[in-house]
Amino acid sequence: DAGVIQSPRHEVTEMGQEVTLRCKPISGHNSLFWYRQTMMRGLELLIYFNNNVPIDDSGMPEDRFSAKMPNASFSTLKIQPSEPRDSAVYFCATNSRGRRETQYFGPGTRLLVL
Amino acid sequence: GESVGLHLPTLSVQEGDNSIINCAYSNSASDYFIWYKQESGKGPQFIIDIRSNMDKRQGQRVTVLLNKTVKHLSLQIAATQPGDSAVYFCAENTGANSKLTFGKGITLSVRP
């Protein structure tokens, strides 16, 4: 199993630009979580999906952030427009129906907004 | 870039010694707990879990202890190796949904 796949692994962009982060969950996993990690705030849950449906987006910082899961094998997290304070590592994690609490993380996308 | 933030607490141990990493949780309704290990430049990796109907669970070189009375969780690593150097996070789930609440993390540094 390839595990959770995220792309890109690194992204450097200028303030105001649109950023799209991508995640491919582990095959068969039906829940998907987007996290943001910074030194100041640690790991923060942004949003999670169950069976491709957004369940809880209370962690999304503001309207500049949006997430979609068009099918069971793909999700995107978009920031438009990006700001320097969005610089962080963004992780995608997934879990399966059988082990609903155990989340498996991808390698993350390190985002730097200049 | 990122602004200067909080420094994670650090536990420094000698290679070969046993390590004990502690975590306090606040939600008495939590019924499932996980320890994750995060190496530099990687995502958190599942180590071991425990449900609230247990007070101890053992894995390979690792043991998790749960004390529900004082809401305390610990991770014991036997014969600590350089490869164990990482940030360790505890996480809890209340069972109401799939969300995990993560602790701040503790850095384990293994001295050769």
Explain the overall architecture.
The complex is a heterodimer of chains A (114) and B (112). Chain A has 114 residues and is mostly beta strands. Helix content of chain A is 0%, strand content 54%. Chain A has strands spanning 5-7, 10-13, 19-24, 31-38, 42-50, 53-56, 65-71, 74-79, 88-95, 104-105, 109-113. The model of chain A has no long low-confidence stretch (mean pLDDT 92). Chain B has 112 residues and is mainly β. Chain B contains no helices and 10 strands. Chain B has strands at 10-14, 19-24, 32-38, 45-51, 56-58, 62-67, 72-77, 86-93, 101-102, 106-111. In chain B, the strands form 2 sheets. In chain B, strands 1, 3, 4, 8, 9 and 10 form a 6-stranded mixed β-sheet that branches. Chain B has a 4-stranded antiparallel β-sheet with strand order 2-7-6-5, with no helix packed on it. In chain B, strand 5 and strand 6 form a beta hairpin.
Give the overall pLDDT of chain A as a whole number: 92
Q: How far is the N terminus from the C terminus of chain A? A: 36 Å
Instruction: Give the count of helical stretches of chain B.
Output: 0
What helical percentage do the residues of chain A reach? under 10%
Main beta-sheet annotation of chain B: 6 strands, mixed
Largest sheet of chain A: 7 strands, mixed
- Could you give the order of the helices and strands of chain A? EEEEEEEEEEE
Helix content of chain B: under 10%
Instruction: Please state the CA-atom Rg of chain A, rounded to the nearest Å.
Output: 13 Å
What is the C-alpha radius of gyration of chain B, as a whole number of Å?
Answer: 14 Å
Q: Point out poorly predicted stretches of chain A.
A: none
Q: What's the number of helices of chain A?
A: 0
**Topology pattern of chain B, helix = H, strand = E:** EEEEEEEEEE
Tertiary shape of chain A: globular
Give the overall pLDDT of chain B as a whole number.
89
